[in-house]
From TrEMBL:
SUPFAM superfamilies: alpha/beta-Hydrolases, Isochorismatase-like hydrolases. Residues 34-209 form the Isochorismatase-like domain. It comes from Amycolatopsis speibonae. Pfam families: Abhydrolase_6 (PF12697), Isochorismatase (PF00857). Keywords: Hydrolase. The lineage of its organism: Bacteria, Bacillati, Actinomycetota, Actinomycetes, Pseudonocardiales. InterPro entries: AB_hydrolase_1 (IPR000073), AB_hydrolase_fold (IPR029058), Isochorismatase-like_dom (IPR000868), Isochorismatase-like_hydrls (IPR050272), Isochorismatase-like_sf (IPR036380). The keyword Hydrolase applies. Residues 263-494 form the AB hydrolase-1 domain. This is Isochorismatase family protein. The keyword Hydrolase applies.
Length: 504
């Protein structure tokens, strides 16, 4: 039920009064949004329920919004109204005395179930409430603050009731607020239009679905680097080189020497190339390390299509592009975490012959397996922290055992990572099975893993050994997933031993 926004819709006198009052100014749009889907439960979206209406169009618009938010790592928060039998049958809830039809919204009933046309996943949040506002009597404000949100997009039902109350309280809780017109529904046109008019005038920007989608896309694409981060490049004993993979420009740090055996280093999900500088420096007496800024990180471009641009096939195509573009002959692929998964795929599908591969603590997750141990919210929270401005001391709270220089580099460079790249890659950890590639990775192949890693457990390492018996394995005792950062001496010893074997 869209609301026209042409001048004079509510009468010249009304428009004049509101203009004179200074209403209707556009709200700022921050860089850390969340989507709050208000009460799109069956009791409101299906006309067969006493409190319901046919909200097919609004549910469809919301599903599009949810998919876009999830793709870009934007938190999705659903709300629902539900009452206990004592509340529904008694007289303690004042709202039910005024609106007794709401008594049908019993906890656990079909009326309180999320509309099945919406896809709620494990990473989404659910806020149960008793009143109109999703903030009243709930922990929603604390949740949004904990997620470091600065802007709330609100949609759902009903526009004149719970959507309006939630949007008003969002503003009163300190969040800039957008109400997505096409994704809000009501039982009648009049209350719907009036509520959107009042919200636009005093509390929020009422926006079309396309505008909300564009905002999410623009927000997730934002990446930044401070001058202090760029200055780090001047301290590296490496040369920046550039290649293209289709439309994506890729940045590579080349540590030389030019006549050395090339080792293409592929970092993890939130590690720009500079984060692997200390690894590369440790290898220059043996090989020629080249560290890739994986697309969407560091100085490399983002994928033009985030729906298809951060899967293993796209990443492996970038490896081919670097090998071809820089003329690397018989390179070794060295990947850590995400980079190890990329190395495995490139070893199986790549165009160029390889001298060998070294995989370091690759995520073994995939369909039907356990989830990746670090949540998407944790990754995105760290990125948002970096965008807001962080320092080594704050990084040390998450990574206390890291060398100080590595904490400083992460503080300066993490903001260069695309939220969309992280979200899509994290989804790939569970949608793309490492074991589809690993048994096909040809010898010689080395598999290094942390003895205390939650990513490669003892059972996972045993399965990997069974599935590719030609590979050589090395456990780094007491190291977690961040093997080189956690136990650098023993990790480098194992890595150098693997490289020496490949060189011989």
């Amino acid at each position: 039920m869209p609301v026209d926004d042409h001048p004079g819709l509510h009468g010249a006198e009304t428009d004049s009064v509101y203009d004179r009052a200074g209403f209707g100014v556009a709200v700022p749009r921050g860089s850390r949004p969340a989507l709050v889907v208000v009460d799109l439960t069956r009791g409101f979206t299906e006309p067969g329920f006493p409190t319901g209406a046919d909200l097919t169009a609004e549910v469809t618009a919301t599903a599009t919004l949810v998919a876009a938010a999830r793709l870009r790592g934007v938190p999705v928060i659903y709300t629902a109204i539900g009452y206990t039998p004592a509340e529904a049958e008694g007289d303690a809830v004042a709202w039910l005395r005024k609106a007794p039809g709401m008594r049908a919204l019993l906890e656990g009933s079909d009326a309180v179930a999320l509309d099945p046309r919406l896809d709620r996943r494990d990473g989404d949040h659910l806020v149960m409430k008793k009143g109109a506002s999703a903030f009243h009597g709930t922990a929603l404000a604390a949740l949004l603050s904990g997620l470091d949100v600065d802007t709330v997009l609100v949609c759902g039902a009903t526009t004149s009731g719970c959507v309006r109350a939630t949007a008003v309280d969002a503003v009163q809780s300190g969040f800039d607020t957008l109400v997505v017109r096409d994704a809000c529904g009501d039982r009648a046109r009049g209350p719907h239009d009036a509520a959107l008019f009042d919200l636009q005038a005093k509390y929020a920007d009422v926006v079309a679905l396309d505008d909300a989608l564009a905002y999410l896309a623009e927000t997730s694409a934002r990446r930044s680097l401070a001058q202090s981060a760029l200055a780090d490049l001047g301290d590296l004993p490496a040369t920046s080189r550039w290649v293209t993979s289709g439309p994506v420009r890729l940045h590579v740090l080349d540590y030389g020497p030019a006549d050395g055996v090339p080792v293409l280093v592929l970092p993890g999900i939130t590690s720009p190339a500079v984060a692997m500088d200390f690894v590369a420096r440790n290898l220059t007496d043996l090989v020629r390390p080249l560290v890739l800024d994986v697309r969407g990180r560091g100085l490399s471009d983002v994928a033009p299509d985030p729906l298809r641009g951060y899967d293993l096939a796209s990443y492996a195509a970038d490896v081919d592009a670097v090998v071809d573009g820089l003329g690397l002959r018989d390179p070794i692929l060295l990947g850590h975490s995400m980079g190890a998964r990329i190395a495995a795929r490139a070893a199986v599908t790549g165009r160029s012959p390889l001298r060998g591969t070294v995989l370091v603590d690759p995520p073994l997750s995939g369909p039907g397996r356990g989830p990746y141990p670090t949540t998407l919210d944790a990754f995105l929270g760290q990125v948002d922290q970096a965008r807001r401005g962080t320092d080594a001391d704050e990084v040390a709270l998450s990574w206390p055992s890291w060398p100080r220089r590595e904490q400083e580099l992460r503080a300066r460079w993490l903001s260069s990572c695309s939220r969309a790249a992280i979200a899509a890659t994290h989804a790939g950890f569970e949608a793309e099975d490492f074991f589809d590639d690993w048994p096909k990775v040809p010898a010689p192949a080395f598999f290094l893993y942390g003895g205390a890693s939650p990513v490669v457990t003892a059972a996972g390492a045993a399965e990997a050994a069974e599935r590719n018996p030609s590979a050589e394995f090395a456990e780094i005792a007491d190291a977690g997933h961040m093997v080189f950062w956690d136990r650098p001496d023993s990790a480098f010893a194992a890595l150098r031993d693997a490289l020496r074997k490949l060189l011989s």
